[in-house]
What we know:
The protein is α+β, with helices and mostly antiparallel strands. It contains 23 helices and 22 strands.
Amino acid sequence: MLKRKMLRDLMENKLAYLACLVIIVIGLTTYTSISIVMENLYRAKDNFYADARFADGFARVSGMPAAHLDRLARIEGIGEIEGRQVKDVRVLGLDGERNVHLRLVSLPFIPGEYERPINAPLLVDGSPLNEEGRELWLSPDFFAARELKLGGEISLLVEGRAVIFTVAGTAQSPEFVYALRTAQEMFPMPETFGIAYLPASTMKTLFREQDRVNDLVFLLEPGYTYAAVEEKLRPRLEPYGLISIFSREDQVSHAILTMELQGLEGSATAMPLLFLSIAGIILYTLLKRMVEQQRGQIGTLKAFGYTNGELILHYLSHALLLGLVGGVVGGLSGIWLSFSFTEMYAQFYQLPGLGRELSYGYLWRGMLLSLVFCALAGYFGCRPSLRLQPAEAMRPAAPPPGRRTWLELWTFYWFLLTVQGKMATRNLFRSRQRSAFTLIGVMFAFSMMATTWYFRAITDFLIFDQFTRVRTHDLQVAFSRPLSLPEVERELKAFPGIKRLEPMLEVPATLKHRWQEEDTIILGLPRDAYLYNILTDTGQRVDPPTGGVVLAEYLAAQLRAPPGTELILESYWLEDPVRVAVVGVIPQHIGTNAYMEIHALNGLLGRGSLATAALLAMDETYIPLLQERYRETEAVASMEASEALLDKVRELMQSFGSMQYIFAVFGFIIGFAIIYNSSIVSLSERQRELASLRVMGMTSGEVLQVLTFEQWLLSCAGMLAGIPFTIILMHTLSRAMGSELFSIPVIVEVDMFIVALAGTVFSILAAQWMLSRRVRRLSLLDVLKERD
């Protein structure tokens, strides 16, 4: 009998339970899919790092004889250390592309077989390299993006001459899982940048350095920390022109992958808890209302001998059935969705072994999580009324006391209300728990939709704003080595179509303040620079200082160096450290740099007047001609047109658009479910009252206004509360997601709140439309014949 009653109860409120079920499914789909993707990423990363012997530390020097590596290997704490040559070269002849680059990485070679070096690239496809011929391995993403073939040829511009190599295979190294050419880039662009591996014996024949290495990687001995080893290694490397030294944690590819995994961990925890909590509160409210409505039935069942345990189990079965179905559907849909998510991550993170591995453990955990939440909601929802004795339970509950509310003291407001508005306002304070839940739920739904638009605003700001406000040049020409600034200006200004030329000097440096120190790049810019703008948080342009440095906010925070602080500047370009003052701090959202006026920086270095790049504003019709003229020049490392780079970024960002819409839909579903379930509960509690109003002459629409006015009052308060809550959430996300690679600005735009308002209002209207159908179907005879 209780089973048939349970099915009738479920069918009577099928839409309310369905809305609750959808929220459970969304929460568990999120949990299962993100958890599986996270586990796949962790497994692939850990296996790849172990197999490839990923380095614990990295160092870059201007040049060091390879024979001196033995001295460094004897430093206490270093298990193994290797030196390599790492060079960026341009690729020629790929469908007319003039800005395609490869980073050449040398490999130790033993005739007939390769050693297992530190950061050993894993051969994905193809054959081992032959020392006798000019062969190389390419990174798989570059190989695929350029549609190359094994055994085919590729032409590289090496020190001003074209050198042809044979593509022997594809290989992947753990230090280039997320391959960025510069720190200013945000996304890998395999169409224009890739990694190539070739034997050290071949590498030394290509460059003038020959047996000198410029890149070091090392492993630590067990029991030693990186900090202890760096303290001993740094002074040993300084005579060789130490550019930078950093641990695995600061290596760009590893740092980005780690940050993404941490974000996934947070999402896998927070998102399901949010959705399951909302579903639990909805279920609690529904069951509590059902038990209160069925007091008479409960009293009768108790009189016939049913125990409290049997009745609790009966009402718990509603919740457990919902939890079981939600757990199964959410888990299976999460497994299905994890396939697409894994493929998406495989496009950005080159991890061999990252496949569609299933983990049914998350399905069972999701089901258990769903059952626990639903069981707790069901138990606390039905427990109070089941404590009643049979005789007391068969009597209807006393109606809540009526009293004046504080809103009635607002005379102007109160006299503007209709009868329906006054009834709705008073009912808000009679059902305070439900009113508070509705208000908070609407606030969350509003905030979720606003935050979705916020992420879209961040994307536009971080990427496109760089090309309209900060980097306003049409073309950047980067040099392979520092060149004489007067010669650069004389050479390039003579080219037709150039409207403005601004040299730039990039100096790797270490800034120290007390016990804090950070590696960075100091950018030297002209005093009247307009092609690379230093901007304050209000958008005002700042001139590069001649008597100090301007720091990016993140860099200043890490050094704890506000304006007026004196820093120690070290660089392999300097013979001795110098002191510089911080004269300003500015927001920088991509990378973390320090800024100086270019002539002041050259004067500080004492090496003459140098430039490492040139920024050009020019007629776009002349850009291809300039690229053609200098594309095989030894002194030019790269030429990047801003418009072409912006087009590539736009293409990459299209893949993230669907994720924004998914979260907007989640917000809509939450808003609809909360408003609809609150309405159903209110209608069930007050159906006799509403039916009486119909008998007294009110139309269905006027009766509906009693419920909808209450909802709109709560929803307006929830949306207003959602505005400061969203701003607080944005500040929290900005702090949590910021790093030395990029910082997340807090962008408060009216558009995001308008979109959230429109989405929330639409969800409320949809819920009220469903409610109106039930009000119109309200049977006056059945309601009014119920006994008190």
